From TrEMBL:
Pfam family name, one: DUF58
Record protein name field: DUF58 domain-containing protein
InterPro entries for the chain: DUF58 (IPR002881)
DUF58 domain boundaries: 204-320
Transmembrane parts of this sequence: 32-52
Keyword Nuclease in annotation: no
Alphabetical keyword list: Membrane, Transmembrane, Transmembrane helix
Length: 413
């Protein structure tokens, strides 16, 4: 609770002190009385503010905050609505004399004061204002700041009401062209072997992580000794793992995350089961399926909220290699592995290249473009992955994601 005199209150107090001293110096009783009166007014108002706490309305006021949309993508706007409702007669009386303002993280306010529209009714008030999500992450919003001024306007009381909220900001994503005709064809279906059921299997295939258990064919599963599920028109769609490293520079990290998220969503929209594996993740997330609807997209994007840049280039490479070791090779057999990585050492390239042995490897090798050495290291990494059978596209941080994606789809081994 912050209580302090207003400019008017300070002016009255100063005038009271001057009048009191002048009255004593001149021996004027009237000046002394005026000085005491002027000085007593802000002092009495301050004491009253201490006794009559404006925040006692917490027991009679309820605050509800809503953000739409939530989560929001970086670079987009959202609207915040705060409802303050009085629950009793005393709360309505306190509500009438309160002024409202909101606190927001710089990543939502841009460092500027929030301009809100306030609508009042006898028993409630509504505060609306826009925010601009400038950066991916989870950012605080609130609590509501309430201000009350006494009837003479000499003392202002300020405090907070309600609780703090968190706004989730997903990375900026770009709609990429559907890749199904390029990445999945008849040769891929043959390569899948037992994963693609024949007519003799009565349209059954092996169970994959994330499949709906209601599709399990229990009689055939018991006969074979392994779980089998009924296939559908998407049965031949390979599962996809999108692996991304986290660079040292923050701008490169945001660009990498946006590109990887866009690639993951493009594969999901094409019907592939998809999982997003950030470097350094302890346990790879399960695959999600487009049939889950918006929840599938949200599950992928939520994995990016708490990612942060690597501390050093060595840490970034070590995190990528650790993520590759944690991927269960029995589950990646026949998968498409899409990777967004930076330059790696020869030893790192050798260890990373084996990730595509059990399926298809597609890599976007990133260079920051700040010096010739960075471009040379990126070229060496791309060459090593191509020799290992990967399809590779070399890109520069900040390039248009669509151009990077099309270059990857048009690349050759």
């Amino acid at each position: 609770m912050d209580r302090r005199p207003t400019p008017r209150g300070w002016a009255l107090a100063a005038a009271g002190v001057v009048g009191l001293q002048a009255g004593i110096g001149l021996g004027s009783l009237d000046l002394v009385r005026v000085g005491v009166l002027l000085l007593a007014l802000p002092v009495a108002a301050l004491v009253a503010a201490l006794v009559v706490d404006a925040t006692r309305g917490r027991r009679g006021l309820e605050v509800h905050r809503e953000v739409r949309p939530d989560p929001v993508h970086a670079g987009q706007d959202a609207e915040v609505r705060v409802d303050i409702r009085a629950t009793d007669r005393a709360g309505r009386a306190r509500l009438a004399g309160l002024r409202f303002s909101e606190q927001a993280a710089v990543e939502l306010s841009g460092g500027r004061a929030l301009r809100a529209r306030v609508a009042r009714a006898p028993d409630h008030a509504t505060v609306r204002y826009p925010v601009h999500a400038s950066q991916r992450g989870r950012w605080p919003l609130g609590p509501l700041v309430v201000t009350r001024t006494d009837m003479f306007g000499v003392v202002r009381s300020r405090t907070t009401l309600g609780t703090e909220s968190r706004v989730a900001v997903w990375p900026a994503v770009v709609a990429l062209p559907a890749p199904s005709d390029v990445l999945v064809g008849e040769p891929d279906r043959v390569a899948l072997g037992a994963r693609t059921p024949s007519t003799d299997d009565a349209n059954l295939r092996d169970y994959r992580d994330g499949d709906d258990l209601r599709r399990v064919h229990w009689r055939s599963s018991a006969r074979r000794g392994a779980l089998l599920v009924r296939s559908d028109e998407r049965a031949g769609m390979r599962p996809v793992t999108v692996l991304l490293d986290l660079p040292v520079r923050a701008t490169a990290t945001e660009w990498t995350i946006s590109l990887a998220a866009s690639m993951a969503l493009a594969m999901l929209d094409s019907g592939h089961p998809v999982r997003l594996v950030p470097a350094g993740s302890r346990t790879p997330a399960p695959h999600v399926h487009a049939r889950s609807g918006p929840e599938a997209r949200a599950a992928l994007l939520d994995l990016t909220l708490d990612l942060s840049p690597a501390r050093t280039a060595n840490d970034a490479e070590a995190a990528v290699l650790d993520a590759t070791r944690r991927l269960d090779t029995t589950r990646t057999a026949g998968e498409i592995v899409l990777a967004v990585v930076g330059p790696m050492s020869p030893a790192g390239c050798g260890a990373f290249a084996h990730l595509g042995d059990a399926g298809q490897g597609w890599a976007v090798v990133r260079a920051d473009g700040r010096n010739a050495g960075d471009a040379r290291e990126s070229q060496l990494t791309a060459t090593a992955l191509r020799r290992a059978g990967w399809r590779v596209a070399q890109v520069t941080t900040g390039e248009d994601p669509v151009a990077c994606w099309l270059r990857l789809l048009g690349s050759t081994r």
